[in-house]
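Q: Joint fold for the lines below.
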Amino acid sequence: MRRREFLIIPAAAVGGTLLHLIARKSAHVDAQSGNVKVPLRFFTAEEARTVAAACERIFPRDASGPGATDAAVVIYIDRQLAGPYGRDKYRYTKPPFVASVPEHGYQGRENPRQIYRAGIRELGAFADLPVDAQVQKLASIERTSFFELLREHTIEGMFCDPMHGGNANLVGWRLIGYPGPQMSYRDHVDQHYGRAFRPKITSLQQLVGRAAPAWEDEAE
Amino acid sequence: MTTLKPVDVVIIGGGFTGLAMAKELTARTSLSVLVLERGPLRTATDYAASMDDIDYSVRFRMMQSTADETITHRHSVRDAAVPVRQYGSFLPGSGVGGAGEHWSGHSYRFTPEFFTLRSHLAQRFGASRLPDALAVQDWGVTYDDLEPHYWRAEQMLGVAGKAGNLGGKTVDGGNPFEGPRAHEFPLPPLKLTYLSSLFSEGTRKLGWHPFPIPSALPSQAYTNPDGISRPPCLYCGFCNGYGCMAGAKAQPSNTILPVLERRRGFELRTASWVRRILHRSGRVQGVRYVDPKGGEVVQPATTVVLASWTLNNTRLLFLSGVGTPYDAATGRGTLGRNLTHQVRGGTRVFFDRPLNGFMGGGACGVRIADLDGDRALTGSDGIVRFGAIQVLTQGDRPIATFGTMPRGSVKSNWGSEWKAAAMRWYDHSAAIDFVGEHVAWRQNFMDLDPTYTDKFGDPLLRFTLDWTEHEHSQRRLADARTREIARAMGAQAEDIPATRGRYNVTSYQSTHIQGGAIIGTSPEWSVVNPYLQHWDLPDLWVIGASAFPQNPSPNPTLTALALTTWSADALIGKYLKAPGKLV
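A: Joint structure:
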């Protein structure tokens, strides 16, 4: 049984609806500090801090809008790694593992969990580095499988449905005006030619009125 | 091992072709018909909760699990094959409905000359000028044979479109190059997205003939001849890769299964994984499968219909020792030959105005066939067949599209500068697709892998497949054509030249893998006769796109369905009356 690990987020940084969405259950708002404790499923608190810092460099909060920390991308990644994807439940993992040409894609034995654990070790005390040094460090590992995954997962965590833990408070979708799932565009699909049509943004849960079963919640 | 009570017909695979065959058999005979499907049954309620990019588009929740079974691939017989560990250049479905649940709904007919391609090319270019390695064949069934079956399939699905050739008369607004239709489409075309309107205007300016993609997403509420009603498409954009949350898109689960559920004699068993077709002395005896509890059972049957898609059709024939494996070195044998995929190419284009690309559906798009087949070739192009060009608005979602920008916009693909540029170009880009015909080559084939196995320990299917100079030339020509169209649409085209890369198992082409158990007029070069009856085992019928000897530009599903009822007519009308070889 792993020790309970939490990600601490300042409640002030997040909206009221978010608390429920990203914490699901057992979120605790500390009355004195005003912090939210989100239980982690895979990362240790220290690992989560490192990954969150790296994601923020990939998709930073800046003049153009919110970034990976605002969207709680690290929570998304934590849940993906804890679920079937993280342990390669649905990937073909029979040996022999042999190196092949790039046209055959990733042929390695390591699953995403193992790639992350090794990558995080490589990043060291990343979260405590100054921003410039963080950027340099990431640039130095740009061609690794770990960085490729981290970059993909950061984009996924920015723009996923909030049911997966990322895109907290729909900040990712708001940033670009993506409306999320909608029942019908029948009256709109041949209208608005050349002009941005930006309907009210909804999550899947808001749309169907109930929580959808996320794949990462599937029992082992 | 348990032996179950015998049935008359076992159908392996509960997808479009398997269920369509069951529908014919249960309507026109009193036989007991059992469909064995290895995946689950999903309902419309499941689909409403599945409008989720991560689980379905990113992690492929509806697709076959590669952990259960995958294929291996090598570029040539000189290379070692490795497994496709994750998808992928194609996305096989699993569960009742198969890939027909997550498909895009493109519902084309193939053009008449495609069914006699060998003879056609010999006439067009001269038999002696065709490459030696070209393995294209005549089918032994013609467009005219299939026309009424196409019409039946179009009515069943409720295909929305515009005829371009009614009884030999060209009609404005449709595809003037299609084969003659006896009827206008059951429904008018889908609505036109902004991108489609730009493509239509642009290609018309160039003197070409844009037409709406024939769609199994109904443009209006529709009731088919079986009495099955479906609502119109809502253009929600969660279409290919998804089951339809509105029940609008024609899927086996909402179009055929409701009919079958009322039929006496029909039974569906899910989570039932067929491992072998059993046969002795030239007669089928039944199948052996793994039941939902993991037990091996024997299901005796008089007739077996193999309807489990190209890959599993071919693989089960190999595993069951039915037919003669193809030998690429000598050209002898037939099982596994004529493996084809699809030649994709084209260019990405960028607009200065937003496209609202999140609204759409799998078959929302416009195509031109002016250059399709060989009709625009001069004889000195270095190719014998080309393909079609199209745009689609299938429902863009940001995980896939965010970061698409003109080449060289920024140096890095992460960080602030990248983020700002990605936001600038978000919803401002689209693809002009080349959907190329993949002609069959003697060196592309399937057999069993000597090393890798599935979850039961059975050998995986092995692909030997690579692009040739022909496909590179198709892409190069497509690159030039799509750039002309981009300019005519007022767009900026991507300045990346057409790839000459080798076949890549990681980049999606289409799920139109074909061949392996091809149709033909002689057992010397085909696995099934023109009725889809196996040449060696007359009580085994092998249906689906495994029968296609070469891969056209149009999508295969409607032809797979038309060929199924064509086959059913022979099975029911001739074979059951006098069981034996029909040819």
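Q: Anything notable?
A: The helical segments of chain A are 16-23, 45-58, 73-82, 112-123, 131-140, 145-159, 171-176, 204-208. The two ends of chain A are 14 Å apart (CA to CA).
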